[in-house]
Amino acid sequence: MIEVPSSDYRPSIEDIGARMFARTLDSNGNRRSGTFTATTTPTASAVDVLIDDALTTVEAAVGQDIDGAFLNSAKTCVIYNTAMLIELSYFPESTDAGDSAYKAYEQRYEDTLKHLKEAINQVRPGDKRVVSLEMHSPVRMPGNRLDPYGNFLFP
């Protein structure tokens, strides 16, 4: 297992724009080749900040260092989370509609994150895991009572 840091699954501004082509309009209403720039709403620098926020959320859910085999799935989670943040921040009036882009990104994010967590937590042959052990010996406290935590050994 080769673990990679979260910086390896951080998407680029172009990755976000490729999935949000309809939102890459400049102030004149022209498409910016599927990426965010200084003239789009949101701007490229604003999207970069939202990518950091989305990355932090995914890191908290799956870890900062993950197996390299899950790199693309983690990156996809960050992309969908960033798309959700863009929709919430810049187009909030459309997020409640049943057919909104926000709802679609949210569903994709939740599905991808669920599958990623399941894949990361699968038991694989040869894996060594730390577990808690329960010991079966009476541990007495003063007054001849059993200590309720005395029979547990934590890693």
Can you tell me the number of structural domains? 1
Structural class: mainly alpha
- What percent of residues adopt helix (DSSP H or I)? 40-55%
Low-confidence stretches: none
CA-to-CA gap between the ends?
22 Å
- The ordered string of helix (H) and strand (E) elements is EHHEHHEEEE
Count of individual beta strands: 6
Q: Sketch the major β-sheet.
A: 2 strands, antiparallel
β content, as a range?
5-15%
| Radius of gyration, in angstroms, nearest whole number | 23 Å
Shape: elongated
Query: Overall pLDDT, averaged?
Result: 82
Helical stretch tally: 4
Strand numbers in spatial order across the main sheet? 1-2
Overview of this structure, please?
This protein is mainly α. The strands form 3 sheets. A two-stranded antiparallel ribbon has the order 1-2. β4 and β5 (145-146) form a beta hairpin. It has helices at residues 13-19, 44-62, 71-90, 101-120; strands at 3-5, 65-67, 133-134, 140-141, 145-146, 152-153. The model has no long low-confidence stretch (mean pLDDT 82). It has one domain. It contains 4 helices and 6 strands; from the N terminus they run βααβααββββ. α2 packs across α3 (71-90) and α3 packs antiparallel against α4.
